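Table S5 (text form). Sequence records supplied for joint modeling of the two-component complex.
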Amino acid sequence: MTELAHRSIRPLGSRRKLLEMQGIAKVFNGTVTALQGMNLDLNEGDFLSLLGPSGCGKSTALRLIAGLMQPTQGRILWSGGQQKGDLGVVFQEPTLMPWATVAQNVYLPFRLRGQGYDAVRSRVAEALDLVGLANFHDAYPRELSGGIKMRVSIARALVTGPRLILMDEPFAALDEITRQKLNNDLLAMREKIGCTVIFVTHSVFESVFLSDRIVVMAPRPGRVVQEIQVDAPYPRTMESRTSAAYAAHAQVVSDALAQAMGEPA
Amino acid sequence: MTLADDRAAVWDAEERARARAARVEAVARWLVPIAVVFATLGLWQWFVIANEVPHYILPSPVRVWQQLVEDRAILGDALLVTLRITLMALAVAVIGGVLLAIIFDQSRFAELVFYPYAVILQVTPIVSIAPLIFIYVKEPTARVLICAWIVAFFPILSNTTLGLKSTDHNLRDLFSIYGASRVQRLLFLQLPSAMPYFLGGLRIAGGLALIGAIVAEYVVGTGGAGSGLAFRILEASYRLNIPRMFAALALIAVVGVAIFVLTSFVSWLMLRKWHESAMRGGQ
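The corresponding structure-token record, covering 548 residues in total, follows.
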């Protein structure tokens, strides 16, 4: 049977709270306000996009949640406290160790917990299956295309069955066709394992296609301006991209973004 | 029509020229240097015979070869001594250089305190430190070893230090998120990242260890018994035994080339799976 965490996703509104950001502010160098007054409740099963232009603090918010930096004000509370291994992360670059094979790269989170490879071999294999790389165990990153490397990176993020996966513009550097394929596959994976995702992007269409919650952010200072729920049902497919509902949602989000930027809608 | 014919049919002139150039390059890479060496030796041989140059001015290659065979006992022993000191110095330089680099990386304070000494040791010519070592150290082998080590360890230290600092920042963040300890970070992230840098340093250090061993023996000497190639060259020069000087010189050159080939091979072996430098070099 499957060993990866297998959670069912409840409908919006009936989900249990996973973490809470309370009045978060981050000021760099004493003067540069990267993020101001951010409040956010994240629930188990959410696919939440942080959407906004450069400098709106979306990456800062992600780094704060990841614990890579401490907030200047406010706090982040995890339900039941935060444990080691609660997080999986995918960066904009695949961020693989070039000297290690695909399987060794995916094994990394376990290795850093002190677990031997044999004990988790099947979980590494399952994660690679899930991202469609069952035949790539012994390949080295340099042999792989950008899209495949990104799949390895995703497998590594979800191999431990984390409570939350953070994705920081993971597909921004890929070509449009690869990007759409990965978007589809990401949703299929979510259907299978029921992971919770915070997804940073500057693409309206990507955020509408993927998420059920979109948090629109604005720059100078970085702040949340609006939250929009996308109630289109999952599974979403290639056809959903051309549906009227999709276009309507994209319009709403675009307007919110334009408003946030201070432009006429 | 076979598949091969099909394939041949789509080769245009440019591609055929490129493939031919690649084949020529593959052979020429080995053939040209070897041919140049033999051509030089032939020219040298001709020059000596045609002009009847006496062997105590310039011995012919054949004469040098005869001397090498004749003196094989003396020169063989000397070669072993030089080789042993060079390899020992290189080994100590690798261990010392890498350990110091790790200490510098782990403790900013240690780096601030000790780095100036490493630089001072490096920039002071070994020829000027050697007489001091001669006074302080009594054991002849140890004297030469210390000199060779001083020359060889710096490129390892500075390259490895640079490598340990050159980790991908996203990977560093990833290790932080997964709560990696300092030891895990060092073993699984920093040391592998530093490997290409270290191997670059090793190639330089291999040549320098040989130079250090030779120079140190010139300056401090080993006092007759258990002498290396440098001592034999000096000795032969006092006796105006020019062919033997050339024979010893040839051995030193061969050792130098062998060390370079060996360290390059080790480097290729370690990096061929993942590093750009080894991929291009290995093709």
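Note: The mean pLDDT of chain B is 88.
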